Amino acid sequence: MKVDALKKSFTKDIKGAQDVKSLEAVRIKYLGRKDGQLTKILKSLKNLSVVQRRKIGPEANALRQEIEKALNERLGIFVVKQQHLDIDVTLPGKKIPIGHLHILTQLENEVRDIFSRLNFSVVEGPEVETEYYNFDALNIQSGHPARDMWDTFWLNQPVVVPTTDNDKKLLRTHTSPMQIRFMEKHKPPFQIIVPGRVFRYEATDASHEINFHQIEGLMVGNGVNLANFKYVIETFLRQLFGADIEIRFRPSYFPFVEPGLEVDIKLSSGQEKLIASRKSEWLEVMGAGMVHPNVFRAVSYDTNKIQGFAFGVGLERLAMIKYKIDDIRLFHSGDLRFINQF
Amino acid sequence: MKFSYVLLKKLAPRIESPKQLVEVLTAHAFEVEAADDKTIEIVIPANRYSDAASHFGMTKVVSAILNKKWSEPRPPKLNKKPRSKDFAIKITDKPLCSRYSGLYAEVSKIEPSPQWLQDILVACGLKPINNVVDVMNYVMLEVGQPLHAFDADLISGPINVRLSKRGERIVTIDLQSVACDGHQLLITDDKGPLALAGIKGGKRAEINSNTRRIIVEAANFNAASIYKTSRAVNIITDASLRFSHGLSPALVEKAIKRTADMLKKVCNAKVGSWLDIDNARHKAAIIKFDVDKFNNLTGLKLNQPTCLRYLKNLGFAVSGKLVKAPVERIDINIFEDLVEEIVNLYGYDKLPAIAPQIALIPSGMEDQLVLKDKIRNILIGLGMSEVYNYSFVNRQEALNDSKVWGGKPVSLRNPISSEFQYLRPSMYSQLLQNIKDNRRFYDEVRIFEIGKIFPEEGREILSLGLALGGSSKISSYFLELKGIAEALFQGLGLTDFEMEPYLDGLRVESDHKVIGFISGQVAEFDVDKLVALASAEKEYQPLSRYPSVIRDVSFLIDRVVRMSEAQNLIENSSHLLVDVDLVDWYEDDKTTQDRKSLTFRLVFQSEDRTLTDEEVGKEIEKIISSLQEKYGVEIR
User: Fold this and answer.
1) The CATH number of the domain where B343 resides is what?
2) Residues of B with Cβ-Cβ distance to A173 under 8 angstroms
3) Under an 8 A CB cutoff, do A251 and B392 touch?
4) Residue B326 structural domain
5) What are the CA-CA distances from residue A6 to residues A135, B450, B579 (Å)?
6) Is the pLDDT of residue B490 over 60?
7) Active-site residue, from A257, A285, A288, A291
8) How many domains does chain B have?
9) Between 3.30.70.2860, 3.30.930.10, 3.90.550.10, 3.40.50.300, what CATH number should domain A103-339 receive?
10) Residue A93: exposed, middle, or buried by beta-carbon count in 10 A (0-12, 13-18, 19+)?
11) pTM of the full predicted structure?
């Protein structure tokens, strides 16, 4: 067959091919490795005279390129056609399971990030503590009602252990024991925060839990002062709650600080329930103060050279204010309807 | 503690309104819980009962805030007598009672006290009884010293302050019978107990309508002893609270003098002798005030006279740089205590906020924290949600869960309820319960928790618990959990681990340490151990330049042979194998009988050449023959 005739027949065939399969049949008809009509011509070139070869060779090769190009173009149309969605695109997307971090984890991460930017390091400590670290070393005397500020869970311990009073084990009532543990092993200057779970022996209700979370802060150095404390805490609270938040510092008492104070923030509208239950639009979020010299003495620091501040903030309380959560018990419910909201 | 607004206002006329009082107290001294025009409820800090739990003390604080020094009214002069014809006192257990005063008086009539006095008592939450008892309570409110009055005619012999005897009983004025065991401090006479010292008076010598001769007691008892007894006998009174927190022995004298005055005025009494045994060594601390140290600690820039003026307004005696606190301020002992007084009066609202100047030392995070973050991020990427459970479980759960890590579970001496009696030895039960609870609302539940568990005393493990649940078979969740664990370890850079069959699940080991378990639909891992194992840095492995050859091999093998054994054999049969994966398996009684069908996908690759079909074929023959030799498998 002549090249020209072949070209005409191909043009007809390719028009008739309506899908990928028939297109493949066309390809085999002309370009098939064994019996393709053009392939045959190309294979026969070597048997022709030089003159004929010069004439037919370029024609045949040009046709091969033309056929390949046409096939590919045609194939492209079919491929696109195949990808075309024959469905109602407004149907809902397939549900892909995504995991949620617990809101307290998210908030703790946020708090950690803020303090990390302020050059604080993050450390953690044990949840089972001794009476010494939880109370004595923190200047909280035994046999004094000041200790009643922390209702304590005590562990059952085998009687064979010859326990002196301050070896008795308990569940830490605050993250403050890590002040002592950290200072025992490090020299100032330093600034740390200690996130962790704490425990209180008390009846649970919408605002009281038997276990909850605190973040302790401790900054110690040569000239670390109360005005520095105010700066760090204002910066922290403004970064967490926004620049508009109203903050109040007022006197308070904790045996391990002197002077001692508490920090309140003003609740905004939308938190009427919380305001009503507390009979005040101010809500305390933090206890704090300058580290008491007796605490430094417990870790053999030179109280003439070293000073610093400490604070403790309740994570659940921050979350309740920030996300307008009205029942503290939700945090430990394991209820995904709650957890998956965040 | 409740205060009478009327009395405070009378003592400090600068007070304008309850609202103003609340504002200045909150900003400069104490937290206020509630206030109206009769009662103002103020939170007294545990170290301020000696001075601030009284109207005089509170007036002193409020006046200082309002920038005026207030001094207590001076009662008429009253002298102590060495002895009296009307009564006698002695202290047997001196360490528990540093001071004991008695005041003798005669009254013409026991009757209701005047209305103004009753109103103040009621505002402070006290119940008016009669003129004598009401005066005792009123003076306590003013001065802060608890007082008690006995009917002198009902006392035999001298008043003796001593420890109880074992088996002794006292009946209190509200008719509670308290059994003593030798640890309680008592006020006694020749006949026995008259009062539970510092806590409650006894019935026997109570003031009654026939009382004409009284003995007023004002004393200072050991705080720890009163605290202990009051909790042991479970009687907490206004007096016991005050004594428990510690009071200045100097209040005894102030109270006796004020009582003498008030008895005359209110009860028209004839006041007799005052006996006082004073063994107290109550020297007020003298503290040097250093204004530079003050400014260094606070970040303020006040001058010395300003600072000292604040202290003077609070009744501190100042001589040059030396400062002496008022006698009732037993909380003032060190320099920092003075700093607090001054800062409070100056006001935190005026304190500047100053950025600290620190050395540029990088901050850091403990490895454990870094790993926790990584684990959490990987797991939420795998569609797991994070739960927080209580650290407490009940006995049943504790005993069951203690099997996971071994050991005797730890219980609490004072659990809040039996549901929360034990520290959780594992998260197993709690996670299963979470699955069950959430299944009411979700078809599929995928959860994890990171937290402390307590397998036995002295062992506190940071644990990672994982659990899956839903409508599928447990076996499919088991395999999914296993996959999640593998993906997690890979993400953490922990490559060298083994999963060994253990009980009805798997025990995960690495470097000969047990790092966790997968059992049913729950898995639990020891994060502390993961920290040690996963800290290795990842290192780039060159990509092979030669193509890999993939072949599938299917065979029938005895059901009892574990897949992992067959896989191990294959892996060890050819050094050209770079990967072996099980891609299909099935067993059913009809077609495979007591055998199962396994299909492995084998990937062959060489680092230095392109493998030929022939080469790979030889390797497969080698593998098949070892399988046949060891397990008699039938190739399909």
Assistant:
1) 3.30.56.10
2) none
3) no
4) 286-347
5) 100, 74, 52
6) yes
7) A257
8) 5
9) 3.30.930.10
10) exposed
11) 0.84
